[in-house]
Design goal:
The protein is mainly alpha-helical. It contains five helices and no strands. It folds into two domains: 65 residues, no CATH class; 42 residues, no CATH class.
């Protein structure tokens, strides 16, 4: 059996051709071939077409395809993913503030204004 070319349109057409197929052995062979060819996305998509009662052995090509399917196709957003994005947003805000203060300091310097910014500013009594 031959695998499709390595582009999205060819893979979509190939998978669509196998959707109505009842040939489980052929699908297992294609999944194994896709794993051997180092194409986990295609292997995962083909594995989704297999029967749900199929229980792959740990470490086999089918198990690797099942893990690829979970990673590429049916992965839900985890709470850790949301916390990472919150951290990233906070980091971006902190960087923007820092860059804004640096720009203001340079603008003041070019304009000849002597103004202290931030922690170096003296308290007025």
């Amino acid at each position: 059996m031959e695998l499709p070319a390595r582009d999205d349109a060819a893979e979509d057409a190939f998978v669509a051709g196998w959707i109505e197929s009842d040939d489980t052995d052929g699908l297992v062979e294609l999944v194994t071939l896709a794993i051997q060819e180092r194409r986990p996305r295609l292997a995962g998509r083909l594995f989704q077409l297999l029967d749900d009662q199929l229980d792959p052995e740990p470490g086999s090509a089918l198990d690797r395809a099942a893990r690829a399917a979970r990673m590429f196709l049916v992965r839900d957003e985890l709470p850790e993913d949301r916390s990472w994005s919150a951290l990233e947003e906070a980091w971006i805000d902190a960087r923007r503030g820092r860059v804004r203060r640096i720009k203001q300091r340079w603008r003041d310097r070019l304009a000849g204004v002597d103004r202290r910014i931030g922690r170096l500013e003296r308290k007025k009594r």
